[in-house]
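re: the backbone from monday

yeah here it is again, tokenized this time
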């Protein structure tokens, strides 16, 4: 099947990068490049701005971006997007939520999102997989421990009923989960390169200090996270192999 005739991937934009990183483009661009998708293979919708969301049946898969917003604020656009996410994943649409998207997926399915009692997690962190991850379509090829980039204050305190928790970090007990056979949430940022991560550490320096962290140390310890980055390409490959989602105009 010609790639041009494949159903597109939808990237749901829920926020903007910090000002110092906007010269690198918006989150959908970072995600598309890391996922190995051409521009013609992607549709972008800015949910925060109120753009209408398309029918999930017309999509190969969905990726929901991160945001500086808080799920607990229950903003109208966020709640509306959560409702769309719930319907999409219940219909079997492959979906990957990143950071805010991870939290919004959990919230949409009845999980609990709130501030992480362990405080802000920022920088290159180590992700430890739980045993179910070794049989998961996205995580099975990952090492038991790998580096990833993270920056967040809120987290999934209680995953949705029926979800399988796949990974944790030292500060966060639910860094990744799967719900059903086609929906995943990851708290870390697989689309981040090292310059993105260092930019966020610098932008959140005051908050890090308030949480007892040294921004210079966190920035100095930022390192490449190639295994985490591969997760986006695995999601694309998995979604393209989902029965009934190939070859749509």
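seq for it, each position gets an aa:
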């Amino acid at each position: 099947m010609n790639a041009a005739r494949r159903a597109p991937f939808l990237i749901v934009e829920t926020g903007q990068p910090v000002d110092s990183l906007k010269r690198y483009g918006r989150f959908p661009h970072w995600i598309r490049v890391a996922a190995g998708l051409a521009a013609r293979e992607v549709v972008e919708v800015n949910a925060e701005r109120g753009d209408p969301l398309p029918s999930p049946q017309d999509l190969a898969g969905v990726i929901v971006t991160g945001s500086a917003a808080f799920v607990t604020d229950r903003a109208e656009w966020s709640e509306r997007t959560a409702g769309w996410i719930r319907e999409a994943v219940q219909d079997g649409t492959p979906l990957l939520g990143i950071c805010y998207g991870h939290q919004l997926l959990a919230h949409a399915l009845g999980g609990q999102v709130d501030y992480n009692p362990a405080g802000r997690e920022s920088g290159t962190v180590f992700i430890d997989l739980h045993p179910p991850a070794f049989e998961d379509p996205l995580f099975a090829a990952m090492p038991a421990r790998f580096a990833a980039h993270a920056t967040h204050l809120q987290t999934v305190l209680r995953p949705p009923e029926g979800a399988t928790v796949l990974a944790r970090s030292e500060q966060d007990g639910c860094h990744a989960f799967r719900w059903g056979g086609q929906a995943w949430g990851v708290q870390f940022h697989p689309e981040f390169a090292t310059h993105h991560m260092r930019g966020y550490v610098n932008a959140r320096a005051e908050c890090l200090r308030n949480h007892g962290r040294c921004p210079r140390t966190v920035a100095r310890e930022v390192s490449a996270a190639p295994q985490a980055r591969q997760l986006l390409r695995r999601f694309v490959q998995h979604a393209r192999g989902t029965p009934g989602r190939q070859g749509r105009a």
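The first strand starts at residue 9 and ends at 13. The chain has seven helices and eleven strands.
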